[in-house]
Amino acid sequence: MAPRVVLTDRAWPDLAVEQGVFDAAGLELVTGPATAGNAAEIEALIQTNDPAAIMTCWAPVSAAAIRAAPKLRIIGRLGVGLDNIAVDEASARGAWVTNVPDYCVEEVSDHAVAMLLAHFRGVARMDRETKSLRWNPAGVRLARVRELTVGIVGFGRIGQATARKLAAFGCKIIVVESSRLAMPFGIEQVMLSGLQERADAIVLHVPLLDTTRGMIDDDFIAACRRRPFLVNVSRGGLVDNDALLRGLGSGMLSGAGLDVIEGEPSPPAGILSHPAVIATPHVAFLSDVSLIELRRRASEEVVRVLGGQDPLHACNRPVGAATPNPAGFDRGVASEIRVMEGPIGPIVVKRALPRLKVAAEWLSDPSRSLVEAAALETMAGIIGRDAVPKVLWTDPSRHEFAMELVPPRLRNWKQDLLTDRVDLRTAARAGQLLGQLHAGSGRRDEIRQHFADRRFFEELRIAPYFTRIADRNPDLAPQIDVIVRGMDMRRQALVHGDFSPKNILADGSDVVLLDCEVAHWGDPRFDVAFCMTHLTLKALRRNAGSAAALTAASLQLLDSYRQSGPAILDGDLIRILGCLMLARLEGDSPVDYLKDLDVPATKRIAVHLIVDPFARNEIGIPIPETSS
């Protein structure tokens, strides 16, 4: 008998998406009524069908319902919040709980912004009045949106998208965030009391938990000083309905935009009829695109788990489930990396080490962890949130920070290359992202100021690479000194500092960048040369079965960089490449496949690049023609 999936309820008229996914996987789909039943009705539905998987939209999946399904392996939430699922019971019974955390980020943030604009520009109220034949422009008081201070409670994916969109209107954004998140430039993190003191509008982007239920109560509203407009697009239970009405009646709140209301689908009439309330029927998540994405991805998680794999978006850790390794993370030499359980699934915690794990005495201030966390968030703003892990919190006292676990389908690019799995799409995307990082940061004075300190770059790159090979090759020391001084003179962009295949996770053109603890404002040539060093040395291995493919990957990366980045493919870049190649042979951190290289021959190539970079084609280095 095929494993059975029970869909408890849904907010769409057909089952074509779900049925297509499950038919292809050989799973049987059983559906309850479209409208969510009560707990007892759901328990009966589950007990009757004994499913291996439950998918739920709004229906309550209680502990009793979970106990009634001994074969249960996954509960898939068709949405983000988990307040309708007994997660602890699922974990105890060995079942995964999943959600689709980012399917409606744009829609919900759009909805929040739309409600705010509708209020402060009077759109909703004037629409009602005008259609009632009350033409009264003189009686309207409207706000200039760019003068508003907007407070956001909760700064996850949706909160960040809302902030980005409101910032484009010129609003001042202040954020209450409990997880010590590294804030993007221009956004201020405040205590809740600070938000109540300063906000003209308050937007809720937090889950419904025991600690957040009824958080907008009489005391909260009484502490607000600027008659804020309240926007709730998260969960109705965050707001005490009676307190809301009292706040509106007293004038402590200027209005409310509510997509969710406690008591829905039949919320209090007094709220729906209040003239200062803009209400929509729990549709902020909805668009033609988001709904299809939600249904497909939630169904695919079920197929994934029933097929014996871990889910991509786990919200718990079932009893008996193995603790995941950080997907694709190379342990490296400079940090300690571990996986921990976070509020919504596993997270990666990275702690910088004061002494690196190499034979040489290699020391560096571990406070560089704060630089890395800030760089990741800055990079997200330049090259996109999907291209770097999201930073969750920082702990300066322990020199560590936490970030989201990268999806396990992304593999470490270095390991792929060493096993002759060369995907040119990855090379193209890596080059494009690096070019975008350099070009996008080069015009940002605030980034230049924030990352002006090159101390960690000096400790972890200049001293153990350039200085060391100069000490060991005195005849090259003058040229190496000129190369180092040249990099210092050409500081024009945010430099990743460790842009190598081991710090790139990829699945084709889906690429995530890691490990930027030596990020600094510097010469972008260093990043390009650093990555080219690794690709070139891998191609020069004696046993490299994909030398031609690696060469093609090098050229692809450089071509993509040329199209998106600044014009830096020149002789100075080639000289830096030569130094880095020599450093990976004779420096404090040699490549881990040194035994596979003809070291004397490879050194001759590196020296040639340092001394005479324009003769590189004579020795087969895969660098395209440069501009100087």
Write a brief caption for the model:
Helix 10 links the parallel strand 10 and strand 11.
How would you characterize the overall build of this protein?
- With 628 residues, this protein is α/β, with parallel strands linked by helices.
- It folds into three domains: 4-102 and 288-306, Rossmann fold (3-Layer(aba) Sandwich); 105-279, 3-Layer(aba) Sandwich (Rossmann fold), CATH 3.40.50.720; 408-619, Alpha-Beta Complex (Aminoglycoside 3'-phosphotransferase, Chain: A, domain 2).
- It is built from 22 helices and 21 strands.
- The strands form five sheets. The chain has a seven-stranded parallel beta sheet with strand order 8-7-6-9-10-11-12, with helices on both faces.
- A hairpin with a 2-residue loop joins strand 19 (504-507) and strand 20 (510-513).
- The radius of gyration is 28 Å and the shape is globular.
- It starts with a strand and ends in a 17-residue tail after the last helix.
- The mean pLDDT is 89.
